[in-house]
Amino acid sequence: MSDMDLDELRSELADFAGPEKRGGRSPREERIIAGFEEIQRFVEKHGRAPQHGEDRDIFERMYAVRLDRLRALEECRSLLVPLDRLGLLSGTEIVAETSAETLDDDELLAELQGAAGAGGITELRHVRKSADKRAAEEIANRTVCEDFEKFKPLFERVKRELKAGIRHTLPVQAMDEIKMAEIQRGEYFIVQGQIAYVAEEGEGFRTQYDRRDSRLRVIYDNGTESNLLMRSFQRALHRDAAGRLITNPEAGPLFAEEPADDDLASGTIYVLRSKSNHPLVAANKDVLHKIGVTGGKIETRIANANLNPTFLMADVEVVATYELFNINRIKLENVIHRVFDPAQLDIEISDRFGNPVRPREWFLVPLFVVNQVVERIKDGTITNVVYDPKSARLVEE
Questions:
Q1: Same-domain check for residues 64 and 183
Q2: CA 193 to CA 40: how far, in whole Å?
Q3: Plot region of 305 (φ>0 → left; ψ -120 to 50 → alpha; else → beta)
Q4: CA distances (Å), 288 to each of 284, 294, 312, 357, in order?
Q5: How confident is the model at residue 166 (pLDDT cuts 50, 70, 90)?
Q6: Of the residues 64, 91, 121, which one is the last residue of a structural domain?
Q7: Do the domain assignments include residue 1?
Q8: 102 and 146 part of one domain
Q9: 56 inside domain
Q10: Phi/psi of residue 378, each to 5°?
Q11: β pairing state of 264-274 and 316-327
Q12: Are 201 and 325 found together in one domain?
């Protein structure tokens, strides 16, 4: 990317650009250091650097993107090298090809255009709209959040819910668009490797092009905040290749009389049994089940299971299915996993490349209890019920 406009690159990665020093460390430098310390804590806990990949935990993918950016800029390396007790900045990846996950749309498009040859005479390369530049500037222009202590528990809860499967993240790049209605007070996103919380939304107004907009107060999980326009935040999300929308577990009913836009005409709960020879799996074969929900064919879902760490790198057999209509699939799966969370299997499986993976949808629970949970879901009595592994029955929380 030697032909990339340096101003554009700095604007895109402004969070990691070196500010003018006025004595001591600037707030931006403190953010860079704090972000790097999070990565080092991850490495100390897991014994390896964070890696990219959809099979990775969302926080690991965030750290991987952040580490790529820190390694890419000389200013950041100069600041962090004295603090790099694990040698993360001196890896061979520093000058390796940039991962596709770290490229934004403009950069990736420029690379593809260069490989395909020159475009038409009217094609402008490396030229950004003024609105896009303003969005990058507003995202980068963060300040220290003076009352962060009252927001910190919110971020901790969201992280717990993500790990428990109560919340999910949806890649922004895979969506048609993040609608303005989704960027509202109380919602969470991931942008530039940080969880962002929309804490306040100002009074709406109309732009010169008669479009609705408003000013937001956005808090980030590294203790900073920004005051930016909603449309600028929307553009920043779409320009971030790793941008994510964090789902709201309380959004919408589990069942509805009429299907909503995000509902399925039908959903199928499936229960699978593994054919793995892993000692832990084999010893618990009769009560170990993978429980999930799909809107498609189960056969398609389990194809090539022996190549997928989610399926314990082994073939599976279908032991039960339950078809339900007019149901919010994500909400349903969250409910099932909440109920069976105390019986979740703790196992580490290596994928085809030798990377460790911890599958999260396998539970040590007998089939008759799964039947009970499905019946309670149907009649609406599943609220505040959880599975007790010691007594092998459902109990009130």
A1: no
A2: 15
A3: alpha
A4: 6, 19, 12, 18
A5: confident
A6: 121
A7: no
A8: no
A9: yes
A10: -65, -40
A11: antiparallel
A12: no
Instruction: Tell me if 126 is assigned to some domain.
Output: no
Helix (H) or strand (E) holding 46: helix 27-46
134 three-state secondary structure: helix
The total number of structural domains in the chain stands at 3
Asked if the structure places residue 259 within a domain, the reply is no
Read off the pLDDT of residues 79-114 as tens digits, 9 standing for 90 and up.
888 888 888 887 533 333 333 333 343 433 333 333
Q: Find how far residue 356's CA is from the centre of its chain.
A: 19
Q: Are residues 145 and 112 in the same domain?
A: no
Torsion of CA 261, 262, 268, 273, to 10 degrees: 170
> In whole angstroms, what is the distance from residue 187 CA to residue 180 CA?
12
Q: What is the DSSP letter of 247?
A: P
Tell the residue number behind the tokens 């596709």, with chain if given. 100
Q: Are 261 and 309 in contact (CB under 8 A)?
A: no
Residues 226 and 321 in one domain: no
Q: Are 386 and 312 in contact (CB under 8 A)?
A: no
382 and 335 Cβ atoms separated by less than 8 Å: yes
Host domain of residue 234: 134-246
Q: Distance (Å, rounded) from C-alpha 234 to C-alpha 133?
A: 13
Are 181 and 207 members of one domain?
yes
Q: What is the CATH number of the domain that holds 195?
A: 2.30.30.30
User: Which pLDDT does position 310 carry in this prediction?
Assistant: 87
Same structural domain, 215 and 275:
no
CA distances from 11 to 133, 140, 324 (A): 7, 8, 48
Q: Give residue 369's pLDDT.
A: 92
Confirm whether pTM is higher than 0.70: no
Q: Tell me the two tokens of residue 89.
A: 């900045």
Residue owning tokens 């001591």: 24
Q: Are residues 372 and 320 in the same domain?
A: yes
Q: How many whole angstroms separate alpha carbon 332 and alpha carbon 378?
A: 11
Question: Which pLDDT value is given to residue 75?
Answer: 83
Q: How far apart are CA 188 and CA 191, in angstroms?
A: 10
